[in-house]
Specification:
seven-stranded mixed sheet, seven-stranded parallel sheet
């Protein structure tokens, strides 16, 4: 139900370009404020009106909340009406909803942009977008997004000088700022813990010294490496999904090493691996789980009884010393407590996530940090060699936007502006690996938001 005034504002003609932003999650605020601040007419569609109202605070003149649940038939019908009156659609929804939004955009000849990885469903729209002269941009956040941009800026520079990239490694992580790193896992939640934990179930494939290597998900966290980031300190880095596909994406057919990975603070990988071994990533439904205590659940996982010494049972089950750090972490998470597992929680994974949501949030005034490190080994025809690094250290704004939200949504916001201002007009599906996208986006991020990659080169 809408007032006549609201209906006119949403569906009426506008003197400026109109953008539909779908989603009101953790990363939405910076893009809404950026586009509204640039004078665009922004519609923000999401299920929860209260969240959108908070999101548009301060830019209400150019940003309008619209209650929209894309997962329902009514929501799809409203999406169709909104697409008809917009110039572009930006989706910050979970990736499973992107095809629905993108098809609405194609139907009404609107551009479509998202920060998510490209899927087959999105690739299927490439030819239609080309035929209709429409721009689709995917992978335009931070990882993926500015990782592509900063890497390609160096790769293209090397190529212009006749060089060949023989090795490329890229690691990225969203973490608590050092002064806010105050829990035993060294991690706080800037997105859903379920996704963070399930990422550890994925196999990883990469190229190293000419050999293709696959690490099964169940031993992924046994295969982390120490990664030293200039100005940022030491981290644990583990490989992330399929690095091999980026040989083609980056045009590096002569490379002998390519590894894309994730950064975490020291101690994360070993502890999460032990929780995995104990069964905490189990997704098998147990209807009897709600109402049990966490102590009872952990006792069952460690093949003990609740009245036993459950920490000792965990240590025995995993082959740990009595003073192992994991036991203290589990105590801190409340996994040995008499607290009841919440109603509607039917798997060990979701029971763990419930505790993480309680314990691992950022407190008021705390900041997050985004860390990224590219390392290139380059060879030239005359036999000379160079090592290039590109480092990003960005921090959230105290009592303001998080680094994660800024680095995910501002690149997407800038890309949206470039498309609406017809400064980027390449029809079809693109990711930001071309100078026409990466140069203006990286330049604006640095000049206006101090989100800056520091590039270094040394001769070998």
């Amino acid at each position: 139900k809408m007032s006549k005034r609201l209906r006119r504002r949403i569906f009426g003609a506008s003197d400026c370009a109109k953008v539909l932003v779908l989603g009101s999650g953790l990363c939405a605020r910076p893009i809404v404020h950026y586009l509204a601040g640039k004078g665009f007419d922004v519609l923000v569609g999401s299920r929860t009106l209260e969240k959108i109202d908070a999101l548009v605070g301060g830019v209400e003149d150019n940003a309008t909340p619209v209650q929209l649940d894309i997962s329902t038939p009514e929501g799809e019908a409203l999406l169709d009406k909104l697409a008809a009156c917009c110039d572009a659609i930006v989706s910050l929804l979970p990736y499973i909803h992107h095809p629905t939004a993108a098809k609405a955009a194609m139907k009404h000849r609107r551009h479509f942009l998202t920060a998510s990885y490209t899927t087959d469903a999105m690739r299927e729209l490439d030819e239609e977008a080309k035929a209709k002269g429409l721009v689709i941009i995917n992978e335009c956040g931070v990882d993926p997004g500015t990782d592509h941009m900063s890497a390609m800026r160096i790769i293209d520079s090397v190529r212009k000088r006749g060089g060949v990239v023989k090795s490329f490694t890229s690691y990225c992580g969203g973490l608590p700022a050092p002064d806010c790193n105050d829990n035993p896992l060294g991690y706080k939640l800037s997105w859903a813990p379920r996704g963070v934990l399930l990422a550890s179930r994925n196999n990883a494939t990469f190229l190293e010294e000419g050999k293709e290597v696959t690490i099964p998900g169940e031993v992924l966290f046994d295969n982390y490496r120490k990664i030293s980031v200039p100005g940022g300190g030491d981290f644990e880095g583990y490989p992330n999904r399929d690095s091999m596909s980026y040989i083609k994406v980056y045009g590096m057919d002569k490379t002998e090493t390519i590894i894309r990975g994730t950064l975490r603070n020291t101690g994360w990988c070993g502890q999460i691996k032990k929780l995995v071994d104990l069964g905490f990533l189990g997704i098998e439904v147990d209807k009897a789980l709600p109402g049990k205590t966490y102590r009872e659940m952990v006792a069952t996982l460690s093949k003990a009884k609740a009245e036993d010494d459950v920490p000792a049972a965990v240590a025995k089950c995993l082959g740990l010393d009595a003073g192992d750090k994991l036991l203290g972490t589990m105590e801190w998470l409340g996994l040995f407590s008499e607290e009841k597992i919440p109603e509607g929680t039917f798997t060990p994974l979701d029971a763990l996530c419930a505790q993480m949501l309680q314990k691992m949030q950022y407190a008021p005034g705390q900041r997050d940090m985004l860390v990224m490190l590219h390392t290139f080994l380059v060879e030239f025809p005359d036999g000379s060699k160079e090592k290039h690094t590109s480092t990003l250290l960005d921090y959230g704004v105290k009592d303001g936007d998080t680094s994660m939200s800024r680095t995910v949504s501002l690149p997407l916001a800038i890309a949206t502006r470039l498309v609406l201002e017809k400064k980027y007009t390449v029809a079809g599906l693109s990711i930001p690996t071309v100078p026409a996208l990466y140069n203006p986006i990286l330049d604006e991020l640095e000049a206006d938001y101090k989100i800056k990659f520091v590039d270094r080169m040394e001769k070998l």
